[in-house]
């Protein structure tokens, strides 16, 4: 059975536009998770932009959580000085592990994870928010593929082409319908996120496919929403890691066949909320 917000306590407002669906009034409660590895140079500007956005949004609750993935620079110190809540991995564990760490520690009723470079401007959260309110979904992901006119600065041709091939492979292997799983801008209802991310097994850059696959397997509705996006210099994804990510949809599919995502995760001790 597909699960949506109506089963998670959101308040229905009434029919919208005569289209036969109800709009939901969502509590303005948000945790913004920013995974960071050696980001001391651009993190301050990112956090200032996020804080400015939150200050104008009439949020009942908001927090910025920077998850430091074993940085060798002053990333954690910069984040603390900017007033962010800081979580630190024990060593460099990978982007997937870092996002999972933050998602499982979120305190808001909704949780967004965003790349530290803000390739998708933080203001695009409103596009995701409006989409889940209209549809009563439990998540929404930013997409560069649905409306290419929203891309201001494109990736280099080879990377963009490789991304299209990856998406084709991913859709064939996993059966997921999304046109862009790799945009680092995703919103989830926090209760659902805990169920999804606690089952996550991949620590690297292919984790996006895995969490979307798990969400679908658990019956959650996740929307794909076009967002503004600009390529930012200084990507942490090497060509080698990009090529290796092509194996991740196969790993996800195998884990699904083996039933590894259907099991209730065992929680680690210590109150962190993370799964073992």
Can you put this structure into words, describing what you see?
The protein has helices spanning 40-55, 75-81, 95-105, 125-135, 157-174, 190-197, 207-217, 239-244, 248-257; strands spanning 11-15, 22-25, 29-36, 61-68, 85-88, 110-114, 139-143, 151-153, 185-189, 222-226, 229-230. The chain is an alpha/beta fold and 276 residues long. It has one domain (5-14, 23-257): Spore Coat Polysaccharide Biosynthesis Protein SpsA, Chain A (Alpha-Beta Complex).
CA-based shape: globular
SSE succession: EEEHEHEHEHEEHEHHEEHH
CATH class: Alpha Beta
- CA distance, first residue to last residue: 27 Å
Question: What is the CATH topology?
Answer: Spore Coat Polysaccharide Biosynthesis Protein SpsA, Chain A
The number of helical runs is: 9
The tally of structural domains comes to 1
If classified by CATH, what would the architecture be? Alpha-Beta Complex
Number of strands: 11
> Order of strands across the widest beta sheet?
5-4-3-6-9-7-10
Structural class determined from secondary elements:
alpha/beta
Mean pLDDT across all amino acids: 88
CATH superfamily: Spore Coat Polysaccharide Biosynthesis Protein SpsA, Chain A
